[in-house]
Amino acid sequence: MPARHLDQHTATNPWTLAAVGVVLTIVGFWGVTQEAPPFFADGWGERTIIAALQADTIRPAPSIQSQLGYLFNCQVALTSLSGRAQPTQARQQTAQRCRDGADRITNSAPTFSAAWHTGALAAAAMQDWPGMNWRLRQAYNTGRNEQWLAERRIDLAQSNLDRLDPDLLPSNDRDLLLLLLVDSGRQFLAPRYHALANLRARIDGVLPSLPVDDRTRFQNITARLAVQRSRSNGR
Question: What is this structure's pTM?
Answer without folding.
Answer: 0.78
